[in-house]
Amino acid sequence: MIKINSAEILCVGTELLLGDIVNTDAAFISRRLAALGINQYFQSTVGDNPERLSEALRLALDRSDLVIMTGGLGPTYDDLTKETAARLMRRELKLHEESLARIHARLDRRGIEMTENNKKQAYLPEGAVVFKNNYGTAPGMAIEDEERGKIAILLPGPPRECEPMFEEEVEPYLKKFSSHILYSRNIHIFGMGESKVEDTLRDIMTTSLNPTVAPYAKSGEVLLRVTAGGSSEDECKILCDEMIEKIKLTPVGEFIYGIDIGTLEDALVSELTAKGLKIASAESCTGGYVAKRITNVSGSSGVLDGSIVTYANEVKERFVNVSRETLTKFGAVSHETAIEMARGVRELFGSDIGVSTTGIAGPTGGTPEKPVGTVFVGISTNKYEDVRELHVGNGLADREYVRYISASNAIEMALRAAKKLS
Amino acid sequence: MIKINSAEILCVGTELLLGDIVNTDAAFISRRLAALGINQYFQSTVGDNPERLSEALRLALDRSDLVIMTGGLGPTYDDLTKETAARLMRRELKLHEESLARIHARLDRRGIEMTENNKKQAYLPEGAVVFKNNYGTAPGMAIEDEERGKIAILLPGPPRECEPMFEEEVEPYLKKFSSHILYSRNIHIFGMGESKVEDTLRDIMTTSLNPTVAPYAKSGEVLLRVTAGGSSEDECKILCDEMIEKIKLTPVGEFIYGIDIGTLEDALVSELTAKGLKIASAESCTGGYVAKRITNVSGSSGVLDGSIVTYANEVKERFVNVSRETLTKFGAVSHETAIEMARGVRELFGSDIGVSTTGIAGPTGGTPEKPVGTVFVGISTNKYEDVRELHVGNGLADREYVRYISASNAIEMALRAAKKLS
User: Cα(B415)–Cα(B418) distance, rounded to whole angstroms?
Assistant: First the structure.
């Protein structure tokens, strides 16, 4: 059996070289390879050009055991990945009847006639392992060269096809080549910066070899990945769980909002659902971003009573009952307005939790006293009210970032509130 | 002077190989290189490993005239890009006083003490062209090898530093190497698919060599890039303008929502602002996405009266005046409910335009009659009302995509309405 010591990704598509699309396939596959414990040392991208594609693939097969290619499996004349890989690995293309039938069925369901071009997609290198495509016409494949100990995997480029094919077909295939298991758990942290987390956990991170603990920053949050290696999943799980308990006892503990929970909004919807609580938001500077993120989560309809965007002062007064006096005395961007908005929207919708945002998202509107990034996030329940004052990016952050971080804080405060309510 | 016939991008960072971040730098730089008329044939990524980085850079300098590297300019021991490039191109690192002073000033402003590590960032290859970093401590640089006719440009990895440095410093630098100008304009199309656009414009696209016309699909929209080459910008502009007028006269014309306008929401806010019109949204399945996207645009506070998320039927009744009869007879996901929501929210906020969405975003909630992706988008003005029925992705699209496309349709219908109103 071929031994996979190293892998690399080779993406094919002129649209990548033109910057028309961002290469999310490479990031997705990299994450999955890391989780499988397969080392990846190189990534490359070439356009739809047969010579350069050949050159890149030859180099990749020289320096790595496994080459995962994406793109260039489409039906048109400039889709050449399969032809190039087959030629380099000395395989004939043969009609693969099962794939042809699948393409036929797929097109039939959509009432589209089969063309010669589509038929071309069913010609596969002799002896290839075929990966079914449930989201498009191009099948994926693995070409194994036992003699050289090399494998080339070819996947369609569109993420909607590439990602599920990788999860459903490629991962089970690759697992056959390894007996060592890697198992990871993710600790989600909000409210403590990456360098502070690192400082606090330095001893643990530098001394623990199995599991390893590694921090990753992502838009205002920190993810700690705990990864254990071993011969069985159970063994790895125990190692990870012990480490998680250890970290919970450090000062980082109070900023942990969940384990393997996905996003802040996933954690919020799941907490609200579990407790049968409902929430409403009144949004000024986030303009619907809080509601949009909560409703990203399937099942959020059961927990979101409603949301109202209250940009103008008169809307704040009329709908969420912010007093004119507060607006005149403290301004729309203030601690007091945030509280009244949160209380007002909670009462308006009769919710358990009301959350609000008001601030200056920029790029204009900042003043010396309240520069861009000044945001007040309010929370109101029947037990307590609270406001968090943010200064996102010291006046340097862009509009999207200010709004994103503000919405994150609103969602995190709501999560804390939900945890306190019974 | 060095002649740049080909370029490639080499990104450095183990976090890219682990898939912890998506490589947006490569896409950004690619777009900019294309706009500058510089051909790019390869992209690669390596980790923070000196041997592999050396190997990759040597290869890149062999096959391309210009190599743009990102990442690995940070202050820590595993940031090795500068050291590796300097060694390969036989330059000594010398303290660059101006960069040291800039780093000092930057840290001072934030009350951070200068460390030896930060000082390391001010050591630059002798004779390098230095690019100022206004958003971080690491300066960028270009190392020119006149003898071999090669240039290596080194940029910081974080997009917040890389992108402005490229625009403000690298582009003016690169323009010195070219006398031929490329000039592009973008035609934004919504409502006609990419293949239909291609079919309609096939003759134009295949026969016109200057300007060229190329279509790009992006999330439910099509972008047509018209690119002219010449010796002056004026000359190119005229060629582009003539082509745009020609395309406007084809059946594609009625689906053009703007030229070089950015996004649908940019076009909407600019149209509303120009006409002094105001808008409000009532959102069910999009849950705030329409408002969120409108408020992405700076200046939207002047045109968005408000928005309300009306998930529950009782919220639809109470706030935007959808009649119980309509809800009972036709259901919440219906033509009739969409119209009443749009009308209701327009009246609630006293706006010129009301827009609404109601549908099934999935992954659950679909039925044989109304599968996932069934969405009604309503529009109401004092002149007319309209509803668009969508079937996003034939029941196969994911929640985010259904919501995104629904919001796009709402924004586009509002834009059409705004164009009709005076």
Answer: 5
φ, ψ for residue B67, nearest 5 deg: -115, 120
Residues A304-320, mean pLDDT to the nearest whole number:
93
Strands (E), B47-120: 66-70, 93-95
Chain A partners of B363 at a C-beta cutoff of 8 Å? 298
Q: Which range among A327-331, B16-20, B105-109, B135-139 shows the weakest confidence by mean pLDDT?
A: B105-109
pLDDT for residue A179 is more than 80? no
Nearest-Cα distance to chain B for A297, in Å, is 9
Q: What is the pLDDT of residue B129?
A: 97
Burial B25-45 (b: 16+ CB within 10 A, else e): bbbbbbebbbbbbbbbbbbbb
Instruction: Answer whether B287 sits within 8 Å of A304, measured CB to CB.
Output: yes
AA letter at B186: N
The two structure tokens encoding residue B32: 């900019």
Residues near A188 by Cβ (< 8 Å), separated by ≥ 6?
A: A221, A223, A256, A257, A258, A259, A261, A264, A267
3-state SS string over A13-81?
CHHHHCCCCCEHHHHHHHHHHHHHCCCEEEEEEECCCHHHHHHHHHHHHHHCCEEEEECCCCCCCCCCH
Whole-number percent of chain B with pLDDT over 90? 74
Interatomic CA distance for residues A214 and A207, integer angstroms: 12
- Other beta carbons within 10 Å of A248: 13
Q: How far apart are CA A98 and CA A101, in angstroms?
A: 5
Q: Mean pLDDT across chain A, nearest whole number?
A: 92
Q: Over pLDDT 90: what percentage of chain A?
A: 74
3-state secondary structure of B223: strand
Could you tell me the two tokens for A12?
């094919």
Least confident of A83-87, A260-264, B151-155, B217-221: B217-221
Q: Which residue has the tokens 């961002």?
A: A22
* Beta-carbon-side half-sphere exposure of residue A121 (alpha carbons within 13 Å): 28
Residue B80 to chain A, least CA–CA distance (Å):
16
* Predicted confidence (pLDDT) per residue in B312-330, tens digit: 899 999 999 999 999 999 9
Q: Would you call the peptide bond into B211 cis, given omega within 30 degrees of 0 as the criterion? A: yes
Residue B129 Cα, gap to closest chain A Cα (Å): 26
Structure tokens at A191: 């409210």
CA-to-CA dists, residue A13 to A46, A74, B360, angstroms: 6, 11, 34
Q: How far apart are CA B35 and CA B299, in angstroms?
A: 28
All residues of chain A having their beta carbon less than 8 Å from the beta carbon of residue B42 are 44-46, 52, 56
d(CA B262, CA B218): 12
- CA B299 → CA B149, B303, B304, distances in Å? 47, 8, 9
For the segment B83-99, what is each residue's pLDDT rounded down to a tens digit? 999 999 999 999 999 99
Provide the number of CB pairs (under 8 Å) joining chain A to chain B. 214
Interface predicted TM-score (ipTM): 0.75
pLDDT tens per residue across span B170-187: 999 998 887 777 888 999
For the residues A54-69, what does the mean pLDDT come to?
A: 97
Give the DSSP letter of residue A397.
Answer: -
Task: Give the one of A18, A23, A40 whose C-beta lies nearest to B23's C-beta.
Answer: A23
